[in-house]
Amino acid sequence: MVFNNLTINKLVWLLVALFPVLPHALGAPNAQKVLHVLAFAFVFITLLIKKPSFKRSFMVAVFSVCGLLMTYYASLSLAFTDLLVFRDIPDYLRPLIYLLYLLIPFLYPLDERDKDEFFVFFKKIFVFQIVISALVYVPALWPIVDLFKGRPSDDMALHFYRWSGTYGYPSDFSFYLSFFIFYYFCFFARKVPLKLHEWCLVFIAFSAMVLSFSRGGLFSTLGILGLAFWCTGARTRKTSYVLLSILGVLCAAILITFSEQFEQVSYILETFGGEDGSVDDSTGHRLKEIGLAWEYLSQFPPLSEGSNRLELLSRIEVIESFYGYHLIKWGILGLVAVLLVKLVFFYMCTYVYRFYRTSNPQQAAFAFAVACLIASEVLLFGFSSAISDRFKTLPTFYLLLGYVMFSYFNITNVKVKV
Question: Which chain regions cross the lipid bilayer (predicted)?
Answer without folding.
Answer: 37-53, 60-80, 92-110, 122-145, 173-189, 196-212, 218-234, 241-259, 330-353, 365-387, 393-411
